[in-house]
Specification:
The chain has 334 residues and is α+β, with helices and mostly antiparallel strands. 22% of the residues lie in helices and 28% in strands. Bound molecules: flavin-adenine dinucleotide (FAD) and NADP nicotinamide-adenine-dinucleotide phosphate.
C-alpha cells in the first residue's frame, strides 16, 4: 500500500484551505482497510472535503475515499435497491437514478461530496432527507476490525444527525450504502422555489428529472460554487427551539420565520438570525459571510481555517447575545 507524504490538502477541501497531510493513503478497495486499521495512527477520512474546516495540518493518516461501484441488488414491485460504494460522487448517483426515472433523491441534486458522507449528517435539502431512502449502511469498524451493516433505524438519523457523528464518530469507515429508490415516484415540489422554477422551465407535468433540474437551477443561482469561492455550504445548523421561546422572540422580532418540527418546537432559519445580526455580506480579510446566503461562510482566497473558525465564533456570540439562541456548527472542524 502506498503512503504519500506531505500532500497539499487545498485541492481536497471545498473551503480551499491550505493544509498538508503528513501521510495520505488513497483507499480504492475495501481490502485495504484491514491493513490501514492495524496501523496505530489516528485516522481522518476525506470524501469530497465539502463539509470540513481544516484548522490545522491533520496528523496521523488521512484516508482519501475513492471506493467505486453502483450495483442493483434487489427489485420488487415498488422499489429498486442499489448498493453504492462510498467513494462515488453523490451528484453522479442522483443523476444515475433520475435518468432511470427512480424517485427519492431528486431533491438532493447538486449536493457536493460522496455517497459515504450522505448518512454522516443525513444530508437534506428542499424538504427531503436522505434517511428516507437509506436501507442500510455498511462500515468497517477500526476497533474490532470487522464489517458491520446497520439498518436505517440503527443509524439514529435526525436533522443533520446520525450515530456516525456521535457514538461512532471517528471509529468507522463507511464502505457502502444501500438506497431504496421508488419505481413510482411521489414528487415533493412544495418546498421553496421549486414550483416557481418548474413554471419558469415551462414544465406542466413534473418528473424526477425535471424536479432535479429545477433544484440544480435554484442551487446554481443561490449558492457559491466552491470552484470559484471556497465554502462548505451551511456552516451552522438551523436551531430548533421550544415554542414558548419562539413566542417571546416573536413579540420582540415580529418577522422571525419558523417551521414546525414537533407540537412543542419550531425550527428557526439560522441564516435569518445571522442576517439580523448584520453579518450578511460581511468581509474580514480573506474570509466572510456570503452576500446571498448568510449561513454560508466563504474563503475569498487565502483564509486560514483559524480565521474562519474565529469568524464563526464571533457570529455564534452575536446570535446568542441578540436572540439567546446558541447556534451549532454543522461543518466538521479538524
Ligand atoms: P467530507 O467533507 O469529505 O467529510 C465530512 C465528514 O464525514 C468528515 O468528518 C469525514 O471524516 C466524514 N466521512 C466522509 N466520508 C466518510 C466515510 N466513508 N466513512 C466515515 N466517515 C466519513 N449538505 C446537506 O446536507 N445539504 C445540502 O444541501 C448541502 N449543500 C451544500 C452546498 C455546498 C456548496 C457545499 C460546499 C456543501 C453542501 N453541503 C450540504 C454539505 C456537504 O456537501 C455534505 O455534508 C456532504 O455529504 C459532504 O460529503 P463529503 O464527501 O464532501 O464529506
Ligand atoms: P431557503 O430555501 O432559503 O430556506 C431557508 C431555511 O428555511 C432553510 O434552512 C430551510 O430549512 C428552512 N425552510 C424553508 N422552507 C421550508 C419549508 N417549507 N419547510 C421547512 N423548512 C423550510 O434555503 P437555502 O439556503 O436556499 O437552501 C435550500 C435547501 O438546500 C435547504 O433545504 C437547505 O437545507 C439546503 N442547503 C443545505 C446546505 C448545507 O450545507 N447543509 C447548503 C445549501 C443548501 P432546511 O435547511 O431544514 O431545509
Amino acid at each position: 500500500m502506498t503512503i504519500q507524504h506531505n500532500i497539499p490538502l487545498q485541492p481536497l477541501n471545498t473551503f480551499g484551505i491550505h493544509a498538508e497531510a503528513a501521510n495520505l493513503i488513497t483507499i480504492n478497495i475495501e481490502d485495504q482497510l484491514a491493513e490501514v486499521g492495524a496501523m496505530p495512527q489516528p485516522k481522518h477520512i476525506i470524501g469530497g472535503g465539502s463539509n470540513i474546516l481544516l484548522t490545522t495540518n491533520p496528523g496521523g493518516l488521512v484516508l482519501l475515499n475513492r471506493l467505486k461501484g453502483i450495483e442493483q441488488i434487489q427489485e420488487d414491485d415498488s422499489y429498486i435497491y442499489l448498493r453504492v460504494a462510498s467513494g462515488e460522487v453523490w451528484h453522479h448517483l442522483v443523476m444515475h437514478t433520475v435518468q432511470q426515472g427512480l424517485g427519492g433523491i431528486e431533491n438532493l441534486a447538486l449536493i457536493p461530496g460522496t455517497v459515504g458522507a450522505s448518512p454522516m449528517q443525513n444530508i437534506g435539502a428542499y424538504g427531503v432527507e436522505v434517511k428516507d431512502t437509506i436501507q442500510s449502511v455498511t462500515f468497517w469498524h477500526w476497533a474490532d476490525a470487522k464489517m458491520h451493516t446497520y439498518t436505517a433505524a440503527d443509524c439514529q438519523f435526525g436533522y443533520r444527525e446520525s450515530i456516525f457523528k456521535h457514538q461512532l464518530k471517528d471509529q468507522v469507515y463507511i464502505t457502502s450504502v444501500v438506497y431504496k429508490l421508488s419505481k413510482h415516484p411521489v414528487l415533493n415540489t412544495s418546498y421553496g422555489a421549486i414550483e416557481q422554477e418548474l413554471q419558469t422551465m415551462h414544465v406542466t407535468t413534473p418528473t424526477v428529472a425535471t424536479v432535479a433540474q429545477a433544484v440544480i437551477n435554484i442551487r446554481s443561482s443561490k449558492l457559491p460554487d466552491p470552484a470559484v469561492t471556497g465554502n462548505a455550504g451551511s456552516f451552522f445548523k438551523n436551531p430548533t427551539i421550544p415554542i414558548a421561546q419562539y413566542e417571546t422572540l416573536k413579540a420582540q422580532h415580529p418577522t422571525i420565520p419558523s417551521y414546525p418540527v414537533t407540537p412543542d418546537t419550531v425550527k428557526v432559519p439560522a441564516g435569518w438570525l445571522i442576517e439580523q445580526c448584520g453579518w450578511k455580506g460581511y468581509r474580514r480579510g480573506n474570509c466572510g459571510v456570503h452576500p446571498k446566503q448568510a449561513l454560508v461562510l466563504v474563503n475569498y482566497g487565502a483564509a486560514l481555517g483559524t480565521d474562519i473558525w474565529q469568524l464563526s465564533t464571533d457570529i455564534l456570540r452575536s446570535v446568542q447575545e441578540k436572540f439567546g439562541i446558541e447556534l451549532e456548527r454543522e461543518v466538521n472542524v479538524w
